[in-house]
Design brief:
This protein is of the alpha+beta class and 107 residues long. It contains two helices and four strands, in the order E-H-E-H-E-E. It has helices at 19-31, 52-74, and strands at 8-10, 40-45, 81-87, 104-106. The strands form two sheets. It has a two-stranded antiparallel sheet. A two-stranded parallel sheet has the order 2-3.
């Protein structure tokens, strides 16, 4: 079994892919083998700040942005992609002060 990982950065409260994010996804897609047995897991996350319901919806939108890009730009079939919106329940970032804002990631 093999595994590939990449991180996709998002701005604070954003769900659109940046140029750097698209380049990271392009590199990932180009590494996929021609084998039929692969599955891609896309996990969308947020930081620990804000309303849990809003953060969950944002994490879903972030993950969906990645899925849509992989499907439209690399012809990866939807049944090969497993989408997971994490919200802040499994936050990747714990912020204690608003000035600590930084990029957000979908892995």
């Amino acid at each position: 079994m093999w595994s590939l990982k990449t991180a996709v950065q998002f701005g604070f409260d954003k769900d659109n892919l940046t140029k750097a994010s698209k380049e990271a996804l392009d590199q990932l897609a180009n590494q996929l083998p021609n084998a039929k047995g692969y599955i891609i897991a896309v996990e969308g996350g947020t930081d620990s700040v804000g309303d849990p319901d809003y953060n969950y919806a944002l994490s879903q939108r972030r993950a969906d942005s990645v899925v849509q890009y992989l499907a439209s730009q690399h012809s990866i079939p939807a049944h090969k992609i497993y989408l997971i919106g994490l919200g802040k329940d499994k936050a990747r970032w714990i912020r204690t002060r608003p000035e600590m804002a930084g990029p957000r990631t979908v892995a």
